[in-house]
Amino acid sequence: MTVRNALIALVACAFFPAAAAQSPCPAGDKACARKHLLASPAKRSSHWHAALQRPLAERIAVGPPEVVELLQLDVVANDYPNKPRPSTPDAAFMADVRRAFDEIPAPVKRLLEPKLAGIYFVDDIGGTGFTESTADLEAGFIVLDPTVLAKQTANAWATWKDNTPFKPDPAYRLETRIEEAPRDDRVRAIQYILLHEIGHVLSIGTSVHPDWNADPKDVDAAKHYYFGLSWKVDGGKYATRFDADFPMRKDVVFYFGPKLEAREMRATYEALEKIDFPTLYAATHPADDFAEAFASYVHVVLMGRSHQVRLYRGAKLEKTIGPCWGQARCAYKRTALESALGLPVTR
Which one, of 289, 285, 297, 291, lies nearest residue 323 by Cα? Predict the structure, then answer.
């Protein structure tokens, strides 16, 4: 550990004690959890004033008690089985997160500076990453789970994630490659996850898409320019403009139980290639559409990395799906991202 990393770890421990109270709401009491979530100090911008004054690179720390409690309440409110608890990441993991963050392009960091309250570590959050905004939509924070990320390499993580919508079947296989062999390590797994979560933070308080905590029936779609490229509100729920031609989209569920048969992999990705979602995960929710597009664009275009999904039937490679940023189907989203980042717009 370098002197700087050691200092940041010490500062984190000084500001954020490891102990955290148990959730004030018992499992199953969703009403209690929602009430306490609204009152959480982590949802107030004023709570993060000191954090937002620190240099961006110093906003990386173990999860403070109020963040741990917010996550505990969130799993109760959503009836998830997880039990978030304070994390104690080791020095090597902290160094990898710092390295992953340091490599993120400067234009992204400039936009992130006034909005990111911190990157925090909490165990058993129910996924690899989590982002929440303050109630006034002025700032947000990112949470990573070291217990999930500790042994992941970039391609192993991306492959695992992209397989989660499909029921296991030995006759079919999906591999995702987001890094070439020399760089296929934990640092780049963390980095891609961070890019997705940063995309969420940058969308906070903007007209990109509706607040992810909003009820769809209350959303005015005309106020959100990126949302309108692919999404609409239909019957009080989010739907895409392509659902008639992409009927399996309603069954695309990541992480929480596959609904699609493995034999549907090819048809699913062939349908995806005809529309403007850069990844399959982007087709699940308006907020994840933007975050996935942002992560993929920064990773592929700004950082010059790879992103391929390879579909196998038995030992035979049947199909390879590459990034869409040079294709007409993603041209409008590329323009929107370049405008948001203050980069020259590709025509």
Answer: 297
| Whole-angstrom distance, CA of residue 162 vs CA of residue 166 | 8
Contact 167, 258 (CB under 8 A): yes
Residues contacting residue 259 through CB under 8 Å, at least 6 positions apart: 165, 167, 251, 252, 253
**In what helix (H) or strand (E) does residue 12 lie, and over which residues does it extend?**
helix 3-15
pLDDT band at residue 6 under the 50/70/90 scheme: very low
Q: What pTM does this model have?
A: 0.90
Q: Where are the beta strands (DSSP E) in 45-107?
A: 60-62, 85-86
Pick from 9, 178, 193: nearest CA to 101: 193
CA-nearest of 316, 263, 315, 325 to 292 is 325
CA distances to 78, 126, 257 from 143, rounded to whole Å, are 17, 11, 22
- Please report how many Cα atoms fall inside a 13 Å half-sphere around the Cα of residue 162, on the Cβ side: 26
**Burial code of 223-248, b = ≥16 C-beta within 10 A, e = fewer?**
ebebbebbbbbeeeebbbebeeebeb
User: Domains of the chain: which residue ranges?
Assistant: 3-149, 154-341
Best CA proximity match to 225, nearest among 289, 165, 178: 289
Beta partners for residue 174, in sequence order: 311
Tokens at residue 321, please? 């799906």
CA distance 186 to 191: 8
Concatenated DSSP letters of 177-227: ESS-GGG-SHHHHHHHHHHHHHHHHHHTTSSSS--TTS-GGG--GGG-TTH
Helix (H) or strand (E) holding 107: helix 106-112
3-state secondary structure of 46: helix
pLDDT, one tens digit per residue, over 223-264 is 999 999 999 999 999 999 999 989 999 999 998 899 999 999
Residue 166 is given by DSSP the state: B
Segment 170-177 shows an average pLDDT of 97
Q: What is the enclosing helix (H) or strand (E) of 142?
A: strand 140-144
